Amino acid sequence: MACCSSFLLLLIRLFFIFFTLSESAVQIQGLGIGINYGQIANNLPSPSRVSVLLRSLNISRVKLYDADPNVLVAFSNSNVEFIIGLGNEYLENMTDPIKAQNWVQQRVQPHISQTKITCITVGNEVFVSNDTRLHSNLLPAMQTVYRTLVNLGLDKQVIVTTAHSLNILSNSFPPSAGSFRPDLAEYIQPLLNFHAQANSPFLINAYPFFAYKDNPSQVPLEYVLFQPNQGFMDPITNLNYDNMLYAQIDAVYSAMKAMGHTNIQVRISETGWPSKGDENEVGASPQNAELYNGNLLKRIEAKQGTPANPSVPIDIHVFALFNENLKPGPVSERNYGLYYPDGTPVYNIGLQGHLPEVEFSFASKNIHILPAVFFSFLIYVIASLIWV
Ligand SMILES: *[C@@H]1O[C@H](CO)[C@@H](O)[C@H](O)[C@H]1NC(C)=O
Ligand SMILES: *[C@@H]1O[C@H](CO)[C@@H](O)[C@H](O)[C@H]1NC(C)=O
Ligand SMILES: *[C@@H]1O[C@H](CO)[C@@H](O)[C@H](O)[C@H]1NC(C)=O
Question: What is the number of alpha carbons within 13 Å of residue 273 lying toward its C-beta?
Answer without folding.
Answer: 30
